[in-house]
UniProtKB/TrEMBL annotation:
<keyword id="KW-0131">Cell cycle</keyword>
<dbReference type="GO" id="GO:0003677">
    <property type="term" value="F:DNA binding"/>
</dbReference>
<dbReference type="Pfam" id="PF01580">
    <property type="entry name" value="FtsK_SpoIIIE"/>
</dbReference>
<keyword id="KW-0132">Cell division</keyword>
<dbReference type="GO" id="GO:0005524">
    <property type="term" value="F:ATP binding"/>
</dbReference>
<feature type="binding site">
    <location>
        <begin position="47"/>
        <end position="54"/>
    </location>
    <ligand>
        <name>ATP</name>
    </ligand>
</feature>
<keyword id="KW-0067">ATP-binding</keyword>
<dbReference type="InterPro" id="IPR002543">
    <property type="entry name" value="FtsK_dom"/>
</dbReference>
<dbReference type="InterPro" id="IPR027417">
    <property type="entry name" value="P-loop_NTPase"/>
</dbReference>
<feature type="domain" description="FtsK">
    <location>
        <begin position="20"/>
        <end position="211"/>
    </location>
</feature>
<dbReference type="InterPro" id="IPR050206">
    <property type="entry name" value="FtsK/SpoIIIE/SftA"/>
</dbReference>
<keyword id="KW-0547">Nucleotide-binding</keyword>
<dbReference type="GO" id="GO:0051301">
    <property type="term" value="P:cell division"/>
</dbReference>
<protein>
    <submittedName>
        <fullName>Cell division protein FtsK</fullName>
    </submittedName>
</protein>
Amino acid sequence: MSTDTQPLDKPVPVSGLSIYDPVHLGIDERGYGVDIELIYRNILLGGEPGSGKSVALNNIVAHAAMCTDTRLWLFDGKQVELGLWKSVSDVFVGPDIDAGLQRLQELQRVMDWRYDELDRVRRRKVTQTDPVDVIVAVIDEIAYYSATIGSKEQQEKFVRLVRDLVARGRAAGVIVVAATQRPSADIIPTSLRDLFGFRCAFRCTTEASSDIILGHGWAKQGQSATHIAPEDRGIGLLLAEGGMPRRMKSAYLSDADIYALVDYAHQLRTTIAY
Ligand SMILES: Nc1ncnc2c1ncn2[C@@H]1O[C@H](COP(=O)(O)OP(=O)(O)OP(=O)(O)O)[C@@H](O)[C@H]1O
């Protein structure tokens, strides 16, 4: 008889991931896994409605939720895209610009405080051995806060705060993951786009909008998300700083998968003090 079964009254041991581990996004055209090193980076995802941004985001959120060294801050204007993760998030902001601004300002203060601490101990960045949790801030959909709800002043403030977090957050352990279904110059100005180390363009209707996500000139070189067929949901061009866009298909997590992952993340976050 096997002796390695767990008595039912004993908690099942769980172990978590780290945000310093590569994050699995999907597979490329040759069938190789697409994993990204998100630590010290930010990622922007864009594409037309229904092109697969939220499915891709869920992979990143799933990884972050499984991490015992990560805080999850979710900003979801539609509430339901990231809503399944709400119970394991540390902060969840719905369609409320005041709450969005308040939380971003809080995050900015955390970042500034961390830089003061780094400066005090003469260090450049937080590392895995520091007793500091990385904060992953996921914003879906960025245009909802920057162009749809609130006053113009509030929208501009939201963009200013996001820009500052994307520009300065990385070394302080603040990672921004942002998605938009409106890849236009007013929503994603070049100065903001260029701060994202990873950019992923899902299907776009124009070469201009594909370039707004990936960077100017890629469409002319044949790298355009307009080439992705409308029925190819979940396929995108992933660009890593300094590289070539890589065609990939994101991994798909069904709602049932997400429920199971949320349960697991819940167990992790309540049994492992972090
Ligand atoms: N990687 C994938 N594998 C299989 N199906 C996918 C994949 N990505 C997307 N889909 C399908 O496409 C649908 C739309 O995807 P998703 O919700 O991610 O789009 P979106 O770009 O976030 O849309 P919106 O901008 O309207 O929020 C999904 O519900 C799913 O059926």
